[in-house]
Amino acid sequence: MSPTAENALRTLRGWWDRWRLSVTGLVVAALAAWTSLMPSFLPRAWYYQGLVTGISMLAGYGVGVVLRTVWTRLVAPRITLPDPVLEIGGTVLRWVRGFAPYLLVVYLITATATAVRWQDQVADLVHSPRPPWGDYMKIPWVAAAIFLGLLLVCRGIRVGTRSISRFVQRRLRLPEYPAKLTGVIVVAGLLVGIVDGVVTRVFFEGANQIFSVQNDERYDGVNRPTRPERSGGPGSVVSFADLGMQGRRFVDGGLDAAALSELLGEKAREPIRAYAGLESAPTDDERSQLVVRELDRTRAWERDSVVIAPTTGTGWINPHAAQAIELLGGGDTAIVGTQYSYLPSWISFLADREKAEAAGASLIAAVADWRDSLPEDGPRPKLYVYGESLGTQAGEAAFSGLRDIRSTVDGVLWMGPPNSNSIWHSLVERRDPGTPVTDPVYADGLLVRFAEDPAEFRGDDTPWINPRVLYVQHATDPVVWWTPDLLFDRPAWLAEPPGKGRHPGMLYLPVVTFWQVTADLGNAIGGSQGFGHLYDSQILDGWAAATDREGWDDDEHARFAELHRLAMERQPRG
Hints:
Layout: H1 3-19, H2 23-36, H3 46-75, H4 83-125, H5 133-136, H6 139-172, H7 176-215, H8 244-252, H9 257-264, E1 272-276, H10 284-297, E2 305-308, H11 319-328, E3 333-338, H12 345-351, H13 353-372, E4 382-388, H14 390-396, H15 402-408, E5 411-415, H16 422-429, E6 448-451, E7 468-472, H17 478-481, H18 512-521, H19 539-546, H20 554-569
Parallel strand pairs: 1-3, 2-3, 2-4, 4-5, 5-7, 6-7
C-alpha cells in the first residue's frame, strides 16, 4: 500500500476514534443516504444533492441511535442467549466497529455511483443535460461534511442537556431519571423558543430589511416611462420611485405600439400597464384604488381587455406573460398589478400567504367593481385574470368558487398553482371518475380545464363554455404536489401512471417521500421549460385557450412563438 493511502486510512481511523460514532446509527444513515438519491421530480446539482443527502444521513443516524438505545436498554436485558452465541456476536460486533469507517466511505461512493443511472434518467425525462460523472462523485464528500457538521451541533445540544441534568440533580437533589427528563424539557423548550421566537423573527425581519433595500434598487436599462399609458409616466397618479424594483421593471418593460406594429405587421395600440407599489399607499385597498385611478386616467375602458395579474413575492409579474398577452391582443390591453411584499416568493409562501390573498382579493374586487360601474351602453373591456405560482393563490382568494369566478370575469389562466389553493383543490378532488389527478377532467371539461401542456387545445373544438377557466400544472412541479399529508399518506398521483416527465421509479415511502418532494421545492426550476415550475414556454398556448382565441393552431403558435422570442430579446435586462 502506498504511503499516501496509509496516511489516509490512518487519518480516517483517528477520525473514527475521536467521533465515537454509533454503528447502528451509521447503518440507518447509509440507508437514508441511499433513499435521498432515489428518483424524485427533478434533477439536482451535485452541491444541492450533497446537502439533501447530508441532512438525510443525520436524520437516519438519529433514528439508528434511538433504535439501538431501545434495544440495549429495553429489549436486550429481557433476552437470554447461550454464552457461545454472545461470544460470536461480540466478535462480529468488534469487527464491524473496526471496519465501519472504511465501509461507510466505500458505501457512500458506491451508492452514489449506482444512483447515477436514476439521476441521469430523471434529467432525460425533463429534457435537462446530464451532469458529468465527476460532479456525481462530489456528492458523497459534500454529504459527509454536512452530516458531520450537523452532528457536531447535535452533540453540542446533548452536552448542554447533560449539564443541565447534572445541575438539577445536584442542586435540587432529584433522582437520575427525573433530572434527565428535566434537562431534556429545558433544552427542548429553549430550542423551540429560539427557533420559533428568535430565529424565525430575526430571519423574517432580516429578510424584510434586506429585500426592502433591494426594492429600491434599479435594473440596468430600466427608466421612468415616457408614455402616459404606463404608471409612473407622464400624468400618472403614482410615483415611479414608489413602484419598487419589480414594479419599475414591469411598467418600463414590453414593446411600445410602434415595435408591436412592426412585429405583427399591422397597426397595434399602445399597451397600458398600471401598477402600485408597496410604497405607493399604506394599504391593499388604497393601492387597488390607485390602480383603478390609473385605469380611468388611461381610458382603459376603451380597451378590448383588462388583465388582472396578482403578483408573486416581491411584486413580480412575469415579463414573458405580460408580453405574450400584449402580442396576442395587439396592444389593445391593460395589465394591472399591485405589490404586497418585499419578500421573494419562497419566503412569501412561508410568511406572507395571507398578505398575498388579501392583496389579490382587494385588487380583483376593485377592478371588477370598476368594470361593472361602466355604462352598459358604452365600451366595456373584457376582464381576465392571470396568475402564476403564489399569484394563483392570490387570485383564487377573490372568489368563493367556480360559480363566482364565472360570474365575475371573462376568463382565467392560472399556472403552477400551489397544492394549498382551495378552489383548485376542491375541483381536483371532485374530478370525473377515472381521470388522473395530474391531468384531471371536471364536468367533462365544460367549465374548467386542466392541462400539463396547453398545446393540446390548439385546434380543439370540443365544448368549453365561456368564460373559460384553465389551470396548467406539471406532473413534475413540486409546488403543485407538495403537501404535509405526504408525511404519512400516499398521494393519488403516485398511485397513477406517471405524468409527463415523472420517473416511473418514484415510489411512496412515509416521511421519505415528504422529504424528497420538500427538497424538490428548493429546486423547482431545476428542469427545463415545460417541466417543474417553469411555464414560460406554455403561456401563449394557455392564454389563447383561456381567452378562446379563434384560429389558434400549430401555425399560429409557431408564428407568435417567434414574435414572442424577438420581443423578449428587446426587453431591458437586469
